[in-house]
């Protein structure tokens, strides 16, 4: 169990830092309902996303893709991205360097 708190990030969406060091951070994003959104945004960090469970429609720049359990992909720095939950589930995101704004 993580020592970090569960933080609401939107309606039916929460995040929890699982582990961190200055060079890397692992975060679970939990989507509890169909239609829950990860708002479009960008950041200077490289992000990898692994779909632990659920189904999601991701927007990566101009690209749109549907992903499910076992899928993973990398988001380059500063690329606008976001998602919509199609089936409740959990995304495991890694950020390098660490997202200090999540601490």
Give a brief description:
By secondary structure, this protein is mainly beta. The protein has strands at 6-10, 13-21, 24-31, 37-41, 46-60, 63-67, 72-75, 81-96. The protein has a single domain (16-93), classed as Jelly Rolls.
N- to C-terminal distance: 17 Å
Measured by DSSP, the beta-strand proportion falls in over 45%
Order of helices and strands: EEEEEEEE
CATH class label: Mainly Beta
Structural class: mainly beta
Question: So, CATH architecture?
Answer: Sandwich
Q: CATH superfamily assignment?
A: Jelly Rolls
Q: Give unreliable regions as ranges.
A: none
Identify the overall geometry: globular
Instruction: Examine the coordinates and then state which fold CATH places here, giving the name of the CATH topology.
Output: Jelly Rolls
Instruction: Evaluate the radius of gyration.
Output: 13 Å
Number of domains: 1
Number of helices: 0
Please give the number of β-strands: 8
The average pLDDT is: 97
Estimate the helix proportion, in percent. Answer: under 10%
Main sheet? 8 strands, antiparallel
């Amino acid at each position: 169990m993580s020592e970090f708190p569960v933080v609401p990030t939107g309606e039916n969406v929460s995040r929890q830092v699982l582990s961190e060091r200055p060079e890397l951070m692992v975060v679970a994003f939990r989507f509890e309902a169909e239609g829950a959104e990860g708002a479009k945004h960008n950041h200077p960090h490289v992000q990898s996303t692994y779909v632990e469970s659920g189904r999601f429609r991701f927007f990566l720049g101009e690209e749109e893709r549907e992903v499910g359990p076992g899928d993973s992909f990398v988001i380059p720095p500063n690329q606008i991205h976001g998602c919509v939950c199609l089936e409740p589930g959990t995304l495991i995101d890694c950020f390098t360097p660490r997202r200090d704004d999540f601490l």
